[in-house]
Fold these 2 entries.
Entry 1:
Amino acid sequence: MTSRKRATNSFKDLGFAKPEPHRIHRQGFPEAIYCPGKTEDQIRKIFAELLVGPGPVIATRIDPRVARGLVIEFPGAHYYEAARLVIAKAIYRKRGQPIYVVTGGTADVPVAEEAALTADALGRRIVRIFDVGVAGIHRLLVHQGTLQKAGAIVVCAGMEGALGSVVGGLASCPVIAVPTSVGYGAHFNGIAPLLTMLNSCASNVSVVNIDNGFGAGVIASLISK
């Protein structure tokens, strides 16, 4: 096995976790730390190990107190409160067509920012279009022309989740729909928009799991090259 292959497939056995600092060489995107369920010490040790690789290093759904500790310990790390992310070693040289990140409402912004900042860390240019849901569809239509410039579009919407299909009908690129857990009772914490998005009649729409902004950002980055 060559040294490059060894690095690509390498991992560090920490006992409680086996982080892969060089996963980005194998898959085109790095391993992320999903923070819920992990102790502060576990997060810190995994973060430190991933920093050995080329980056980016992304900790998702992180508690604010733990995030502030990481930023102090690792000066190159940045905390993004709205997105609940800590990111280090982001790729600052941007390439490819821009990724558009669209929300139905302001309450969808945390998930949208998780997607946007993930794609940004992977070296993509981001255009944000927020609060253009179907209740005021004219707000989206003023952007109809610019949507044609996107390499991929991430649509984050709760309630009934119709925005994914609408954007799909206006765009010539892949649309990644993200159902959010924003809505009233029969919304069922995101299940209603999930089902709407899965049943989209716009053929260019695919769907990730509820509130999975990170996954949408990764997929959009892989598509938009």
Entry 2:
Amino acid sequence: MEKRYQVFVSSTYRDLQQERQQVMQALLELDCIPAGMELFPAADDDQWSLIKQVIDDCDYYLAILGGRYGTTSKDGKSYTQMEYEYAVSKNKPVVAFLHKDPGKIPSEKCEESPDGKHGLAAFRQLAENKMCKYWETPAELGSVVSRSIIKLMKSRPAVGWVRADLVPDESASKEILTLKKKIENLQNELESVRTSAPMGTSDLAQGDEELELTFRLRGLGPNSQEITVKSTWNEIFSVISPLMIDKATEQQLSGAIRDYFLPRLPAGTSAIMVNLSNRDFHRLKLQYRALGLITKETSQKSLKDTSTYWTLTSYGDLLMTQANAARSTRPAPAVVVPESAT
């Protein structure tokens, strides 16, 4: 949404009319909204509350110091300095633009009274303690202001103003809030679906139900033999699931099952090659897929890689974490039953 920034320009008026015109032109070219002395032809206590309100509404504050201190309030402080100090107190981004060589300013544009000269010198010193830039001619001032505002927009982006027809009305805002709530509910439902068993899986073999795995053993001769080992669906899943936290090939999964069950083979079994039967491996793979625990990895592979990869679903990752997380060995805290009041 396109924004426009309101910039308060503070300065004395009659001696800096050409300079203010250059500043206003620079701000308008940047699509900014200038505000300042032109709105308040007479600075007095009655207008001070209005001036503060305009500064509050502005995004940036600029002060231009030439050769005059300006109209002062009852306490002897100029309204320009009061505006500057108020903007600083409100944490507005403030930049002061000071004349580079006050000695070259024509006498008719300079302070004549000692109080005015002293006040201007003190104000310049105050402004130089914060961000300030220097200028000598009206054209140079306009250029310096333009560069400074662009830098402020990047370093300290403000709230800004937008056209009223671009701002959602009350009914549109309510509709947006309703849609956001619907999106939040749908996201929660989706997360619940991802971390729960798919519908229709309650009748499938799973959990601690037993199954038999067949291993083929090949010795030195041409003959081979088959040996069956009993296990459960949960036990096998706890073996292969950590391999699929990222992704794993079918060879890696089958090999992990074989290595896990080798110690269970009957004593005296001698073989140079032991493999899980292809039939049982495919049965395991299809069952875990039907249970919503694993899914085929579809990310881009190299042309030379012909392997099939499997990874965990969100639901599978949850069950894997629960099945493989270490259990606490600390005894449960004793329950202390308070004695009945007598």
